[in-house]
Design goal:
8-stranded parallel β-sheet, binds (4S)-2,6-dioxohexahydropyrimidine-4-carboxylic acid, binds zinc ion, hydrolase, zinc ion binding
Length: 347
């Protein structure tokens, strides 16, 4: 069989993205909107999106250049004192599609996150009852735990208990990076799923130190050993409906990345679908890309599939070293590389 030269996919969605706000939002929203029909928008702004003020944030996203036809799905940032009634009302009003659990201080702008999941048990009980998904940044923050073990430790210390205590709650283990997370999700009931980023399909932790310190390969959860990358690849390309596309595209201005204390986050939005296509093809699973990118996510969330299609063609795409943005630059994932599939647009 000859390799295909053109791919037609149902238009994909991004089930995890950081669109930021202000000038940065204006620059980055279009990169997501040109590929994805919908996106689950992360709420870790300053201040975090904890109230129905999210409706105004949603309007700012829709007003950004290139956002025509794009549907942002908003998430509520859970805090220790989140009110179950307010969460349910926000969901019923269509303002919040899901709620995000950041363990306090786990990552960028998570200082207001949850200090102990027991504090939000009443909220989780409500979410379970109304069918509202819980999106989980699955890392413990205990400084005594090695950074590379924080995801695995979260399973034992927190996630296993959530699955036991809330057997019907829809939970998404976001941006999985370990074999343990992939196995945990696979073994759990149909209420537990996971998102997978492009970077965790392509890089292992060596990328952080290739010839010197590489801040643009740094994100959280941090990339792990090669065996974990391979396990995450196998899960994503397995055909299991539990794994779906979530880029975790997280832009930071170049000077915030190339710094004595560089921010965590990889800006992968500009070539996201091309990046996933490369990984799936390398795994001999290009025929499973559509389910991962365009079907498994909406089915898990209980939303309709998109009724539009996009095309990719086999053509070399040169990823620029940097992209101008809001008076500074962003370094995209795969900067300086050539990717084998090109996103053409609507099919
Ligand atoms: O690398 C990351 N960047 N991981 C996160 O969890 C947050 C994100 C950000 O907002 O920059
Ligand atoms: Zn994220």
């Amino acid at each position: 069989m000859t390799a295909p030269t053109r791919l037609i996919l149902r238009r994909p969605d991004d089930w995890h993205v950081h669109l930021r706000d202000g000038d940065m939002l204006e620059v980055v929203a279009g990169y997501s909107a040109r590929q994805f029909a919908r996106a689950i928008v992360m709420p870790n702004l300053v201040p975090p999106v904890t109230t129905p003020a999210a409706a105004a944030y949603r309007e700012r996203i829709l007003a950004a250049p290139g956002s025509a036809g794009f549907t942002p799905l908003m998430t509520l940032y859970l805090t220790d004192d989140a009110d179950p009634r307010a969460v349910a009302e926000g969901h019923a009003a269509g303002i919040f599609t899901a709620a995000k659990l950041y363990p306090a201080n786990a990552t960028t702008n998570s200082a207001h996150g949850v200090t102990d999941v027991r504090n939000i048990h009443p909220v989780l009980a409500t979410m379970q009852r109304i069918g509202m998904p819980l999106l989980i940044h699955g890392e413990v923050t205990d400084p005594a735990v090695d950074v590379f073990d924080r995801e695995k430790m979260f399973i034992d210390r927190v996630f296993a208990g959530l699955v036991r205590d809330f057997p019907e709650l829809k939970m998404v283990f976001e941006h999985i990076t370990t074999a343990e997370a992939a196995e945990f999700v696979m073994a759990a009931g149909p209420n537990v799923a996971a998102t997978v980023t492009p970077q965790h399909l392509h890089i292992n932790r060596n990328a952080l130190f290739a010839g010197g310190l590489r801040p643009h390969a740094y994100c959280l959860p941090v990339a792990k050993r090669e065996e974990h990358r391979l396990a995450v690849r196998r899960a994503a390309t397995s055909g299991s409906p539990k794994f779906f596309l979530g880029t975790d595209s997280a832009p930071h201005a170049i000077e915030r990345k190339e710094s004595g204390c560089g921010c965590a986050g990889i800006f992968n939005a500009p070539f996201a679908i091309e990046s996933y296509a490369k990984a799936f093809e390398e795994e001999g699973a290009i025929d499973r890309l559509e389910a991962f990118a365009s079907e498994n996510g909406p089915r898990f969330y209980g939303l309709p599939l998109n009724e539009e299609w996009i095309a990719l063609e086999r053509a070399a795409v040169d990823v620029p070293e940097r992209i101008e943005a809001a008076g500074t630059h962003l370094v995209p994932f795969h900067a300086g590389e050539t990717l084998p599939w090109r996103y053409v647009g609507a099919a």
